[in-house]
Amino acid sequence: EVARLEDSADAPLFVRFVALPDRSNPFPQEEWGAFTLSLRFLGRHGAPLPASEGESAEDACLIDIRVLVHAAESRRTGDVAAAHHAWARLLSQPPGLVVGCLSEVNAALMERHWADDNNRPYPPVDLRDTYPTECLRLARRFVEEAADPQYFHKVPLRERGPDLVFGTLGRFGDRSDVEVLRRLGRAHRYSRYALDALRILDSAAAAT
Q1: What is residue 3's predicted lDDT score, i.e. its pLDDT?
Q2: pTM surpassing 0.90?
């Protein structure tokens, strides 16, 4: 309700919700929702992102992903620059770690569990639309290494990582990705996802 008022004076009310979520929460959906909504509210109204500290690699990864969400909503020069630096750090990390954490956040941003989409504070958003080049680079590293997602939450939905990766390749990839997708499509744990991405690429090629 507060977010829908779009009053920048309410920004302090959202600050506590952008702290890192509880990794052991058995019902994390609402917590992820509050986390991403609060990041978007602060970014939309030009409120600074408060500092956060973490102890684990997953914590550090999510701290940088917070910057991406905030900047995607803000679009202000300083926040976009911060996102650029955050991506530089993320792309230096193991791709499985970044894919796992990013997929959890992106799923929360795209969540459509609302009974009435017109009544939700903000519409769904996909970070891949804001950062297509970086997400494609990350996805390609993930498949080249045949990595495993490393999630922030201790009991994640494990299909989110592969969904993010192969969905990215299907949307933003090109013919240079076909060989690795064909290889993974043969009796591999990611074969279903790889074949889906191949079909999307083939359809796009046939339409041109």
Answers
A1: 67
A2: yes
